[in-house]
Fold each of these.
Amino acid sequence: MQSEPVTRPHLLDRALAVGTGFRKEAQSAIRRSLHEFDVLEVTVDHYLHGTPRVRERILAIADELPVVVHGVGLSVGTAVLPDKAYLDAVADFVERVQAPWYSEHLAFTGVPGRDLAQLIPLPRTRESLDVLAENLAVVRAHVQVPIVLENITYYFTWPQDEYDEVTFLVRALQESGAFLLLDLENLRINASNHGFNPVAFINALPPGIVRAVHVAGGMREGLVHIDSHNRPVSSNVLQLLARTLLRQMPDTIIVERDDALDAFDEVVADCQHVRSVVAGFDISNSASGVKAD
Ligand SMILES: [Fe+2]
């Protein structure tokens, strides 16, 4: 069923909008702090599977603040064409909140009839690239906004990998006509766990390919860094943000927080820290102002 469209300021009136992700557990704190955010990121699956009250609150917030749409239910790397009913529901929500693009994860999360409830890394192979391009063509036929894919954390790699991570990522985006949601905490964690240089990764990304950025705070268990989204954003991630802004001009920078949400003042502080980094760049005169569209 089509919902009524809303009229509100468009997100793309500005670049480098700073905000956080809507979480129902923090909805009162988010509402109290709306003035701190330029944008909110809403996970479409939280809306589609939400109670009527949660859906109502999401739409109420979307009437007040620009919204970008994220997703966890697509499983774009599964070698089966995406569920068209799901895509139509995503498209309806994207239109309802007038989102400028739709982001998902470069991963797979299941097969028809079985949800793994995990973001699983794709084998970095030619075959995976073909599956992605075919699936994203179907997504594009249903959802009439640009598609943005996020780099995930991974705790293993496949023995059949043919490419390193950044080579595979850039090929996947360029061959399927998608943009990148660069999660800098995921990059930091992967670089630490798998032993590569995160700055070299950032420098390997073509200018204009990063449409959005995530930052978050994670933890460490023994020798392994975990993507826990329960702590303030680290100074390492803020430094990676500064490196990114030398070459890219994302529309949005979203602070992700999924746990310890009672300390919501930390999310507000994280947004302020992000703004401090952004303030160091002259947006109008930046070499990163090369938009790919
Ligand atoms: Fe993320």
Amino acid sequence: MGTVSTSAEAPDTDRGAAPLLQMKRISISFPGVKALTDVDFQTVSGTAHALIGANGAGKSTLMKILSGAYNHYEGEIWIEGKPVHIRTPKEAKDLGIQIVYQEVDTALISNLTVGENIMLNRTVHDMGKRQLIRWKELHEESAAILAGMNIRIPSKKLISELTLAEKQMVLIARAISTQCRILVLDEPTAPLSHSETEQLFKLVRKLKGDGVSVIFISHRLPELYAICDEITIMRDGRLVKHGRMADIAQSKVVEYMLGAKMEQQFPHIEREIGEVCFDVRNVVDKGKIHGVDLHIRQGEIVGLAGLVGAGKTELCRAIFGAAPTSTGEISLKGKVLRVHSPHDAVRQGIALVPEERRREGVFVAESVSVNLTAAVLSRFSKWGSWLHFGKERQASRDMIQRLGIKTPGERTKVGNLSGGNQQKVAIGKWLLAEADVYIFDERPKASM
Ligand SMILES: Nc1ncnc2c1ncn2[C@@H]1O[C@H](COP(=O)(O)OP(=O)(O)OP(=O)(O)O)[C@@H](O)[C@H]1O
Ligand SMILES: [Mg+2]
């Protein structure tokens, strides 16, 4: 009401202090893609900074440059008002820059303990000098780090016994166990439940209090508004807006991201809802599901909600023939189906799209086209064995356009696409299968 805000969290860029981090006119290209063009980005210590943009906008690439993953970019990086050299991960770490990538599983060694993983960098480093690991010290130190972050995970527990959320906490613990001034979290909440997200936020607030600059990538706007002080919005590899979170309304953020109003980009389409066509009765899987019925009408989207452990994933798996101990009756368009395996399900028009794309959804080393058509290859083969490449290519191109998959072409390796675009490929694969029923399942979440 006309008064000047004196919030302790307010960034002090306008008061003349040099920002902790400045990335200046950053550009980078990959074969066929100009991923970033002249991007400016800056953060202040003791604040959380939201980095947002549509799939393929360049968020992860900008942060990978900051963490030393690429050496072929143009532009400059400054820390505390001085230019620095960051072209390798070690150079970034030595400057106190730590990143937690989205692919949590690949970043930890699952048959080692929590403590060993947290102390990994130092253990390897020390080994050269001493040739000896002091186990007691190692676990005491890692336990102290975990306790300092209010994380209740025993240091001696094996990584393979942890939930995904716990693994992510271990990664963050590892990142901040060494000197950390800038912490990048790339979509950390995507696999987390509500309470796990709350726990992560507590940690982020504590880090802010300790003077760390946290950069937070997420597609969930309410979360960003809950913990971030500043926001940078990107579109098509360029910076479109930087400001204080409090000064930009959520609807404006979406507009900046899309370059158009939400309603223009995604107009409301009326659909006629038909008769019940997918009928599921009395699904039972001992101890997990106790007699569930679903009656789904043609053209209908049905949401399946419930707390962690309520049986949502188990129900999806049972319908898809992936739960051998389950029983129940399923009929599609009046015909009773026999579904004893996922193969039976797919053959009869049921598709399941899992959330965890890296492990189950796509082959990252294969092209977009191979991935899209993998589930329906028989449709593109002549006389049973010859592949009709022209048809395959056309079908892939149509799907790329239909889903707006951002890729230089259908032959690009899926591993080179942005995270969200990889997910679109996983979905496109099943859309090409032209199933009658699509089940979209979130990754099963375990509570902490
Ligand atoms: N190593 C690479 N090789 C080729 N192209 C790449 C590579 N890394 C990124 N790209 C391309 O750069 C663009 C930006 O990708 P980036 O992963 O930064 O997007 P993002 O904003 O993180 O998207 P998402 O929200 O989907 O994670 C994409 O078009 C992507 O295909
Ligand atoms: Mg990304």
